[in-house]
Design a protein that fits this description.
Strand content: 15-25%
Helix content: 25-40%
Strand order of the largest sheet: 4-1-5-6-13-12-11-8-9
Number of domains: 1
Structural class: alpha/beta
CATH superfamily: Class I glutamine amidotransferase (GATase) domain
Radius of gyration: 18 Å
Order of helices and strands: EEEHEHEHEHEHEHEEEEEH
Length: about 270
Amino acid sequence: MSNSNIGNKNQKLRKPVVLMSMGAQERKGHDYQVMTHKYIVPLVELAGCVPVLAPTCCGPDDIEQYLDMVDGVYLTGAGSNIDPALYGQENQTPGKAQDQDRDLFDLPLIHAAIARGIPIFGVCRGMQEINVALGGDIYQKLYAEPGFNDHRENPEDPVPVQYAAAHGVRLAADSWLRKLLQTDEIRVNSLHGQGLKTLGKGLEPLAHAEDGLVEAVHAPSLSPFLFAVQWHPEWQAAQNPDSVKIFQAFGDACRRQVMKTSVKEKFDTAA
């Protein structure tokens, strides 16, 4: 998973297209499909990719057609939790919003993208979706688990305070993420009440919080690029050197996918 500056290579190739699955939101009696601005901007400006927003309210039937169109998948955070029934648990947080349409779209999307070797990048809920899709489970109330810190933001704080660096994250020695960021530890924000418990099949930890919680994962045995983090690198990403490197790494993986597709198309045409 190498890093390079956008535009210095593959200049004759089109920009990568990246699928972003949207989420449900109700506003004044109307149902909306939404995507937060902060997730889109670094994908465009730092990763150098073109976003395609997929509504999840119409079901998963067209996932393969979506994947025919794209070179990457970007699973963002959201205000909703994954339905615990999908990882074999009773719901311990009934007051927290769920988005079952997104669950039922994203979990098969993850499997289909892995089968095609399409790069996947997950953030917060997206990381948890990847874990559940691969058979893992979730601490539903991480803040109530012995030995773990409370990783939630204070809802009374202004947004910039909520997204300020909250704790350290230790990067796995000799990992590609350690090499990418050129450090053993980074400071990250923390805005989640849930966290990864048992890792899904093929997932390997890349980073841990100070209390031992898994904060980043990848799956080198399953995919050329499947990477996810529990924190929010998209927040003011251009001002954070670690976030810049992360989004550029995802963009590079998507550019490699464009090259791979281009070579295949040329071969098919010649044949």
